[in-house]
Design goal:
434 Repressor (Amino-terminal Domain), about 45% helix, alpha/beta, six-stranded parallel β-sheet, Rossmann fold
């Protein structure tokens, strides 16, 4: 029997079983016994038979492709180049390889339900809730979807993410325990009380209140993602509150690193004069001249694995629940307490 012509039906005839049994055996289905699997796989190797993945996927209506949606504007270069976003994409892509799936990166500010339900991919992951959680509720009824982010009160879709309020509170409490009292915060702008920026800002306020420290608006500055905006925000805090002795860059580590540069150029030493804590635990912060104390969302160790596993459950038609990942405060030298 010529190898170039051998088919699934040929292998089935040689093995004396049905074509469905051969198909299941070659995909390690638990419905087929191990001896039968070994026999069929041996025949397939002997005759150099390889399943046609395209035909199989068509039958199963599977693409083995997962869409990862970044809800950004077309000109949002800061998000695309943000180290946390890049590391997040890398961690998700690596985890998907465990399921023999490829990653399709989609940049969509506005969700298009028609596109999402086109069969282009088997399911979707999304970084953040975007600007229309109500539309996500609609889409989640059409396709498997898991969002990286905090839980929202009215959400009908599944989320995986950290408790931003609790992690921000831990960071500020750590600064307070180090004896810092004039603690500034640089945080992203927010228009609603369910965004990451607001939740981190709320954690900051809660920590101050619990310690009996007065809230001072001069110590609060809002900024965008990029380093230039962060640098300007740090200079603004120094102008508004010259006696600042700690800074929580709640937006990101990129903001923290830019703030450290601004502090140094203003003659303020880190951590002696101003302790600094960032957010995201990007690799660059660990190897910065002064290793950065930061809040880790544990994406690479836990988050990506749980995110992808949850989506795979939905794709398989299994129930899945939202999960809160335990983040971690990574204490290093920039806050004055770490040694590594």
């Amino acid at each position: 029997m010529p190898n170039s012509k051998i088919t699934l039906a040929d292998i089935a005839k040689l093995a004396g079983v049905s074509t469905s049994t051969v198909s299941r055996a070659l995909t390690d289905s638990p419905q087929i016994s191990d001896p039968v699997k070994r026999s069929i796989k041996a025949l397939a190797r002997q005759h150099n038979y390889h399943p046609h993945l395209g035909a199989r996927n068509l039958r199963l209506r599977k693409t083995n492709v997962i869409g990862l949606v970044l809800p950004i504007e077309a000109n949002d270069a800061a998000t695309l180049s943000n180290p946390f976003v890049l590391e997040f994409v890398g961690a998700v892509g690596l985890e998907l390889r465990q399921y023999e799936c490829n990653l399709l990166l989609l940049q969509e500010r506005m969700i298009n339900p028609q596109l999402w339900n086109s069969g282009l991919v088997d399911g979707y992951l999304m970084l953040g809730h975007g600007n229309d959680p109500d539309l996500l509720n609609e889409v989640s009824g059409l396709v498997p979807l898991v969002v990286w982010g905090n839980r929202l009160a009215e959400q009908q879709y599944v989320t995986v993410g950290v408790d931003n309020t609790d992690l921000a509170r831990q960071a500020v409490e750590h600064l307070i325990q180090l004896g810092r009292r004039r603690i500034g915060i640089i945080v992203g702008t927010f228009g609603a009380n369910n965004t990451e920026s607001y939740l981190r800002y709320r954690g900051y306020c809660q920590a101050l209140s619990a310690a009996g420290l007065n809230y001072d608006p001069a110590l609060v500055v809002f900024t965008e993602f990029d380093a230039n905006s962060a640098y300007c925000a740090a200079r603004q805090i120094l102008d508004q509150a010259p006696q600042i002795d700690a800074l929580f860059a709640a937006h990101s580590d990129v903001v923290a690193l830019a703030a450290i540069q601004a502090l140094g150029q203003a003659g303020r030493r880190v951590p002696q004069d101003v302790a600094v804590i960032g957010f995201d635990n990007i690799s660059l912060g660990m190897h910065f001249g002064l290793p950065l104390t930061t809040v880790s969302q544990e994406v690479q160790s836990t988050g990506a694995r749980v995110l992808v596993k949850t989506l795979m459950q939905l794709i398989a038609g299994e129930p899945a629940e939202s999960t809160t990942i335990a983040g971690k405060l990574m204490v290093r030298q920039s806050c004055g307490a770490g040694t590594s």
